[in-house]
Structures are given as C-alpha cells and as structure tokens.
C-alpha cells in the first residue's frame, strides 16, 4: 500500500509540523514560495495523517513526478535555505509531462546527455501502455542525471501537432 499520494505528473512537497506558528513550518512556507507555482506543496498538522504518510514531526517528503516513493529531506528540522537547496538539486524529474503552464521551463533546461521526446495520448490504450513503459524506464533511471524524457500528449497541444509532425518527421495519428 502506498504511503502517500499516488504518483502524478507533478513534483510535490509534503511536510508535517506542530502548527502554523512553528518556526520550522514558517521556514518551509518561505522556502516553497521560491518554487510556486511549479511545485505544489502540502502540509499537515494532524499526527494521524502524518502517521499514515509515515512523516515524523518537522519532516518533509519530496515526491518526484511519476515516482512511487518520496525522498525525505535529510537532517530535520530544516532551514529555509536547506529546503531550497534540496529542492533545487532534486527538482528535475527524469520523466516530465509537457504542460502549457510550464512548457518554457521544461524546454529551457540545460542538460547534457540523452534526451527523449515521446508522444503518447494518455486516453488512448496504446498511448497509455507506452506511457506506463516510459514511467518504468524513468523509475529505473531516476538517479541518472544524463537522461531526460519529455512526454507530450498531443491532445494537450492540438495546434502544435502539424509542427511536431513536420519537425520530427512522424505521423502522430498512427499508432
């Protein structure tokens, strides 16, 4: 049984703190402002919820996109600077979905190595199966900084389909 949220196409942070007046919560809140709106963050002050998430007091879990298990930020409690530094180092997921609101951030990354651009319609059976394969590859290679997979669902960008077909010399209507 998963200990936290189901894997999604977004990175996210989840922290457990005593209350809103806690100095550790305030450091967390200040740190996450640096990444808003690209990385959503969540907080619980409820010990029962934290127990279900296996979070200890003042602990923060970082969930990478499409990954099943989080990475806990070490050395709790963390300062604002420690949280920011950790997220900066870990924020690039191996597999990223191209979205209208973050497409420029996704494309501008300067990463040497292997770049894969994959087109798959999530609503299509073949596309879904291909996406599951991409997720497995990403999970197996999450520690490989040289691998970057960008998933594009053509349904999200209908006006760009002709451009992509010409640029990549592919037919996106074919399986």
TrEMBL record:
Record-level Gene Ontology MF annotations: calcium ion binding
Keyword Calcium annotated: yes
Bilayer-spanning residue ranges: none
A biological-process GO annotation: regulation of skeletal muscle contraction by regulation of release of sequestered calcium ion
Keyword Ribonucleoprotein: no
Gene3D superfamilies tied to this protein: Glutaredoxin
Subcellular location: Sarcoplasmic reticulum lumen
Entry keyword set: Calcium, Muscle protein, Sarcoplasmic reticulum
Organism domain of life: Eukaryota
GO cellular component: sarcoplasmic reticulum lumen; Z disc
Oligomer and partners: Monomer; increases in response to a depletion of intracellular calcium. Homodimer. Homotetramer and homopolymer. Can form linear homooligomers. Ca(2+) ions promote oligomerization. Interacts (via C-terminal end and preferentially with the monomeric form) with STIM1; this interaction increases in response to a depletion of intracellular calcium, decreases both STIM1 aggregation and clustering, interaction of STIM1 with ORAI1 and store-operated Ca(2+) entry (SOCE) activity. Interacts with ASPH and TRDN.
Role this protein plays: Calsequestrin is a high-capacity, moderate affinity, calcium-binding protein and thus acts as an internal calcium store in muscle. Calcium ions are bound by clusters of acidic residues at the protein surface, especially at the interface between subunits. Can bind around 60 Ca(2+) ions. Regulates the release of lumenal Ca(2+) via the calcium release channel RYR2; this plays an important role in triggering muscle contraction. Plays a role in excitation-contraction coupling in the heart and in regulating the rate of heart beats.
Assigned protein family: Belongs to the calsequestrin family.
Protein name: Calsequestrin
Organism, as annotated: Bos mutus (wild yak)
